[in-house]
Amino acid sequence: MSADTVNPIPLYASSLRLTAVPTAVGCSRMFVRHTLKLWQLEDHAETATLIMSELVTNAVKASGITEPEPKAWQTAAEHVIGIQLRAVEASLYVEVWDRTDAAPVRKNPSRETEGGRGLLLVEQLAKRWAVYRPRVGGKVVWAELSLGLPVELRPFERTPLILPSAIRASQGPVEGQARSALLDVLMTTTVDAMVAARVIRDT
């Protein structure tokens, strides 16, 4: 296959590394709303925000600090999660990385049980969800939402997302690991989408 025969497909992607503390959940919701507004995909913001909230909550529980108001000295360089939104073809992907290997477990809580319904909600809202194992370690839990129609690249003005400075993960080995993991899942799954799109066009 020559370079001339490759037809690139439109792709939007944006990622962020956050300190793995409870306030990351609210910041991840801001990230979703801000990003989808830029991409003119606001119609999907409510569902994507709910899914991102659940996945980030799980990631913080798995690898971060769960105290509501942790002290600065409690957070360390390893308390990092990575979040990413990606729109390719007719799908929107919500992706969350944390440094632990243990996959999240889908529970079946009773009506009286508090909590434990996160993945049930994700399962109901998403087209599908799964766990990706990046080469740098940890895991990316992702969920796919249907956009209905393939995305079209449009010019937009990049406006910065204003977040509290302490919530952005400081640079270091784990922040770099999160960055690499999100790039890994982006590259791998985007190539898969391009191949699938080409197969559909050629049939």
From TrEMBL:
Superkingdom classification of source: Bacteria
CDD domains in the record: HATPase_RsbW-like
Keyword terms of this UniProt record: Kinase, Serine/threonine-protein kinase, Transferase
All copies of domain Histidine kinase/HSP90-like ATPase, residue ranges: 22-143
InterPro entries listed in its UniProt record: Anti-sigma-factor_SerPK, HATPase_C_sf, HATPase_dom
A Pfam family assignment: HATPase_c_2
PANTHER family noted in UniProt: ANTI-SIGMA-F FACTOR RSBW, ANTI-SIGMA-F FACTOR RSBW-RELATED
Protein name, UniProt field: Histidine kinase/HSP90-like ATPase domain-containing protein
Species of the source: Streptomyces yatensis
